[in-house]
Amino acid sequence: AIQMTQSPSSLSASVGDRVTITCRASQGIRNDLGWYQQKPGKAPKLLIYAASSLQSGVPSRFSGSGSGTDFTLTISSLQPEDFATYYCLQDYNYLWTFGQGTKVEIK
Amino acid sequence: EVQLVESGGGLVQPGRSLRLSCAASGFTFDDYAMHWVRQAPGKGLEWVSGISWNSGSIGYADSVKGRFTISRDNAKNSLYLQMNSLRAEDTALYYCAKVMSPYYYDSSGYYLPDYWGQGTLVTVSS
């Protein structure tokens, strides 16, 4: 199975900060990767698909990049509503795998 | 409006069985692959199983292979997860999820989940 290594596991940041989260795949997955935001007690929300495409309705401060094995989610200017846990998900084959998650906390 | 409503969770003893259901509405159910994803209390997301629009392709995580069975009834707009030989480590909130693109988009589609239900809680304990 493809392993997804996500880092960091947590980070503290202030409103207005630029935040970067990375995911590394154990093998090449083309651009078959998405990023999700999850808030406590809620289902995950799709932010980015195909590594860099912004899902409809998601603010443009969220962006994704990467291909092959290395991927990045960037929040250009962190807003109060962005404090949450973020996950990457690969769908290269039918056996999906998630990253371990990154909890973004208020500094 | 897309709606996914899971049901069937509850408290069950180790070794017993449980069947989860997911009722779908607001989209053409039989055009989309569907998946189950779970989240243990305080832990991350774990993919459990997925099924194609016509049940022709099915996959399972190694952690549930041989114990869980995914199925769907397109006539009833419903997805199921039969869980046998349950273990304490199966305790989790179970979500059903719909993929972004219908099957006929083929290689030009996107197959990540875009809609999720609110989940049904399964607790395995004696």
Blueprint (SSEs and pairs):
The complex is a heterodimer of chains A (107) and B (126).
Chain A: E1 4-7, E2 10-13, E3 19-25, E4 33-38, E5 45-49, E6 53-54, E7 62-67, E8 70-75, E9 85-90, E10 97-98, E11 102-106
Parallel strand pairs in A: 2-11
Antiparallel strand pairs in A: 1-3, 3-8, 4-5, 4-9, 5-6, 7-8, 9-10, 9-11
Chain B: E1 3-7, E2 10-12, E3 18-25, E4 34-39, E5 45-51, E6 58-60, E7 68-73, E8 78-83, E9 92-99, E10 113-116, E11 120-124
Parallel strand pairs in B: 2-11
Antiparallel strand pairs in B: 1-3, 3-8, 4-5, 4-9, 5-6, 7-8, 9-10, 9-11
Task: Explain what you see.
- The complex is a heterodimer of chains A (107) and B (126).
- In chain A, 32% of the residues are buried.
- Chain A is built from no helices and 11 strands.
- Chain A is mainly β.
- In chain A, the strands form 2 sheets. In chain A, strands 2, 4, 5, 6, 9, 10 and 11 form a 7-stranded mixed β-sheet that branches. A 4-stranded antiparallel β-sheet of chain A has the order 1-3-8-7, with no helix packed on it.
- Chain A has strands spanning 4-7, 10-13, 19-25, 33-38, 45-49, 53-54, 62-67, 70-75, 85-90, 97-98, 102-106.
- In chain A, 0% of the residues lie in helices and 50% in strands.
- The mean pLDDT of chain A is 96.
- Chain B is built from no helices and 11 strands.
- In chain B, the strands form 2 sheets. In chain B, strands 2, 4, 5, 6, 9, 10 and 11 form a 7-stranded mixed β-sheet that branches. Chain B has a 4-stranded antiparallel β-sheet with strand order 1-3-8-7, with no helix packed on it.
- In chain B, strand 7 (68-73) and strand 8 (78-83) form a beta hairpin.
- The radius of gyration of chain B is 14 Å and the shape is globular.
- The interface between A and B is medium-sized, with 23 and 21 residues.
